[in-house]
Design a protein that fits this description.
Elements (H helix, E strand, L loop, with lengths): L1 E2 L13 E3 L2 E3 L6 E5 L1 H4 L1 H19 L5 H14 L1 H4 L2 E5 L3 E6 L2 E6 L5 E5 L2 E5 L8 H4 L1 E4 L5 H14 L7
Antiparallel strand pairs: 1-4, 2-3, 4-5, 5-6, 6-7, 8-9, 9-10
Length: 168
């Protein structure tokens, strides 16, 4: 779902121009959307839930202390979080962000060296080229299939404004 900016930050009609590719957003207009993995990838989400519950049952049968079972169960659950829990993504004048189960994870525009379209979303990285550390330091903003082209055009405007790469 694509959401508008809150009323206090919503631009006036004069802040939005119209170019040949549709509305041209000013720098203060945030772009925000939600991604629900159950809607986009139901089979993978169901498998992740099954594996999480199965792991929990397995941990329960190991005879570990209660706290250890809870901690290990949460670790397994969070490893599948991207397939189980919806996230909110945002691009604004400060940078990009993603709100997940543990709160917001943000990247400032100054810290982003590469933004590339990957299968299912936009990858922003502090590295100028692909590295093994992308897995830990990059941020993947998943984009819903039904809004991919509309969001891709708006994301392209924001990326170009900050001198960054290819849109989704």
């Amino acid at each position: 779902m694509i959401e508008e900016a809150p009323a206090a930050r919503r631009p006036t009609a004069s802040a939005i121009g119209h170019g040949s590719r549709g509305p041209v957003l000013d720098a203060a207009t945030p772009l925000e959307w939600t991604f629900n993995p159950w809607r986009e990838r139901p089979a993978k989400s169901a498998l992740a839930l099954t594996l999480t519950l199965g792991s929990g049952a397995l941990l329960g049968g190991l005879g570990l202390p209660g706290l250890a079972r809870v901690v290990l169960g949460l670790a397994v659950g969070f490893s599948f979080a991207s397939l189980l829990l919806p996230v909110r993504c945002r691009l604004d004048e400060r940078g990009v962000g993603q709100c997940g189960p543990l709160g917001w994870e943000r990247r400032r525009w100054e810290d982003i060296r590469r933004a590339v379209a990957v299968r299912g979303g936009l990858l922003v990285s502090p590295f100028g080229h692909a590295r093994g550390l992308d897995r830990f330091r990059a941020l993947l903003l998943p984009i819903p299939r039904e809004h991919r082209s509309a969001l891709g055009d708006r994301i392209a405007v924001l990326l170009a404004r900050h001198g960054l790469g290819t849109p989704p």
